[in-house]
Every structure is written in C-alpha cells, then in structure tokens.
Amino acid sequence: MITTAKRLDIIEEYYFSSKLREVRQLASEGKPIINMGIGSPDLQPSQAVIDAMVLAMQDENAHQYQSYQGLPELRQGMADFYQNNYQVALNPANEILPLMGSKEGIMHISLAFLNEGDQVLIPNPGYPTYTSVTNLVGAVPVYYDLKAGNNWEPDFEALEKLDLSKVKIMWIGYPHMPTGARGSLELFEKLVAFVKKHNILLVNDNPYSFVLNDNPMSLLQVEGAKDVALELNSLSKTFNMAGWRVGMVLGNAACIDAVLKVKSNMDSGMFYGIQKGAIEALKSDKAWFESMNAIYKKRRILTEQLAEKLGCKVYKEGVGLFVWAKLPDGIASAEKFIDEILYDKSIFITPGTIFGSNGEGYIRFALCVKEEKVQEAIDRFA
C-alpha cells in the first residue's frame, strides 16, 4: 500500500469540507436545512461584470494560456481600486499580483518565505488555513491571543514576551474573521512598528473591508508598511464573485517577486474571461457597495435577533459578512450546541472553536441567507 506524506499527519480535512458533506446528506434526506455557516455570498455579481465575461469569450486570445502575472489592465484595475478606495498608491508592474482567490495566496506566501522549523504568528481566533498551511510547509504555528476584553486585537506586551527569534511571518486579518472587529490605522501602525523591530513579514488578510463597514482600511495606508508587509484582498465578498476565484496580493515589490516564483510553478494563468469580468467589477462605484450593504444590514438585524433568541450576546461592533455571538453561560461546548440545533432545528451555524481555542463559547452566523430564510430560522424557535 502506498503511504501518504507525513505532512498529512499534522493536518485535517478543512472543517467546512467535511461538515458540509454532513449538512448536504441531511438535506438529501429531506431535512429543511438553513445553512448559516459558510460565508459564500448568495447574491449575484453586477450584470456589467457578467456581460464583460460573456463578451470576452469571443476575443481571439480568450482560450489560450494567460500571463502568470495577469492582464496588465487587471493589475491596473487593482491599482486604481486601491487608490480610489484606500488612497494607497501601488505600482501595477511589480507591487500587485493577481491570484486565483486570496486563499491560494496564503500557501504561495508560506512557500516563498518559510523554511522547515521557521515560526509563524497566528491569531487565536483566526482563519484556520493559516495553521494548516503553516503545518503543510513544515513551519511551526505560534498562536497569539485575541480576546473580547481587548476588542479582539493583539496584546503587544504579551507579544514582546515571546521568543520571536525564529518567527518569519505574522498573520493578521482586519476586519477580523470570525469576530468582525474593525481594527484601526493606529493598530496597523503598532503592528508595522512591531514587525520592523523583530524583522518579521506582516501579512494582512483583507477580504471583508467593504461589507457593512463605513471606513474601509488597508494595512498599506501606514507609512513604511510596504517595507515589511503584504496584503491579501479578494473580489469574493466585495463583488459576490466567490466561485470566480479572483484575489490579489499587494505590497513590497521584492516579496511580490518571491511569491511569483512560487505561483508561476503552480498554475498557468487565470482564465481570460474571468479577468475581464474582474476588471469590470473593480470599476464599481459607491452605489454598488451601498446596494449590497442595504441588503446585508437587514440580514444582520434579523440574524442578531436569532442569536439573541438562542440566549447569545452579539458582538454589536462587528463588521463584515458574519455575526459573532457569545453563548449563554453554562454551555460547555460550542460544537455540541450547534449540532443540537442542526439535528433538532435543521439550522447550521459555525462553532467558534474551529477558529481556535479562544473561539470556545462563541458561534458565528454568516449573512449569506435571504431575509425570509433568517426569519424562518427565528420562527423555528417560536
């Protein structure tokens, strides 16, 4: 029998990959499942985006291999998007690299900078992929606490007490997933100063900054950030294009070049039509964000009502695509709590524990369910 690589011994199948199989099985058995677990937008891209992709199918070069760096006009569109929305100037020639979704960027960055035994600062709670990718490349996760008492921001005194001599990368993500904590330019300034002091590459994962957020920010707004930092961003949530797989990594030109060395050995370019659709999406004006947020605001109000009906305390300051809520006192296990609701009420909610030990005692709702379905979920507890 052929044995698997040892690296598979230290990772598990992604939670949503396995759990959604169970959810789909329940649905196939006739259970009226309402899936409030995963952040996959159910809304559509704009018609202009779809039309741009359809039209691109007729272009002479549409079906050939594409550039590893993406179309020049796509990189320019990303640069314009950052200038218009974050007031960040980027050189599209060497400070921007389109990705097939920002999730792949986590792997590319890790492969480009981490050697076996290097350490990585990972937020707890935080996106589980930071840990799994760190393990896959043979590096060592070092978790730093994010807690409600500190508004889900790092404790710099605690960070300074760590042995940071082997730390190569620090992952952050504001607006924060799963809590929705906004972050601030002041926080970004502290983080940039911290990594400069300790010679660490800082990477901000920033796919949620336009969802229910009146003050979108980029780490790259901080003076000197490009010297020590990269930022990942995505069209998945901002433009309802999750399945299109369009993301970007931006920042330090030398770091971008290192990531390109990895990426160019792993794919053969993004499909032309998708790039053309992405270019159109990046031209979207303020009215697009306002129309999406009007929908998400109504959903959030209802979702908060559902959480409160479960006896939870909602983190009201949160922005982004999720509602983060603290379970009632006396609940020993978030996973047991959500499973009981899944099997009894056919509603799937994400347990906070999948994001780290500091997620115990919390659950997360995604705002990717139509209002009438959220209301139906509330009514099931009547």
Give me the secondary-structure topology.
Layout: H1 15-28, E1 34-35, H2 47-56, H3 72-86, E2 96-99, H4 102-113, E3 119-124, H5 128-136, E4 140-145, H6 156-160, E5 167-172, H7 185-198, E6 201-205, E7 229-234, E8 247-251, H8 253-263, H9 272-281, H10 286-309, E9 313-314, E10 322-326, H11 334-345, E11 347-348, E12 350-351, E13 362-366, H12 371-379
Parallel strand pairs: 1-11, 3-4, 3-5, 5-6, 6-7
Antiparallel strand pairs: 2-8, 7-8, 9-10, 10-13, 12-13
Helix pairs in contact: 2-9, 3-9, 4-5, 4-8, 10-12
Question: Can you walk through the features of this model?
Answer:
Its EC number is 2.6.1.-. It comes from Flavobacterium urumqiense. The protein is an alpha/beta fold and 382 residues long. It has two domains: 6-44 and 287-380, Aspartate Aminotransferase, domain 1 (Alpha-Beta Complex), CATH 3.90.1150.10; 47-284, 3-Layer(aba) Sandwich (Aspartate Aminotransferase, domain 2), CATH 3.40.640.10. It contains twelve helices and 13 strands. It has helices at residues 15-28, 47-56, 72-86, 102-113, 128-136, 156-160, 185-198, 253-263, 272-281, 286-309, 334-345, 371-379; strands at 34-35, 96-99, 119-124, 140-145, 167-172, 201-205, 229-234, 247-251, 313-314, 322-326, 347-348, 350-351, 362-366. The strands form three sheets. A seven-stranded mixed β-sheet has the order 2-8-7-6-5-3-4, with helices on both faces. A four-stranded antiparallel β-sheet has the order 9-10-13-12. The longest helix has 24 residues, at 286-309. The chain is globular and about 55 Å long. The chain starts with 14 loop residues before the first helix and ends with a helix. The model has no long low-confidence stretch (mean pLDDT 94).
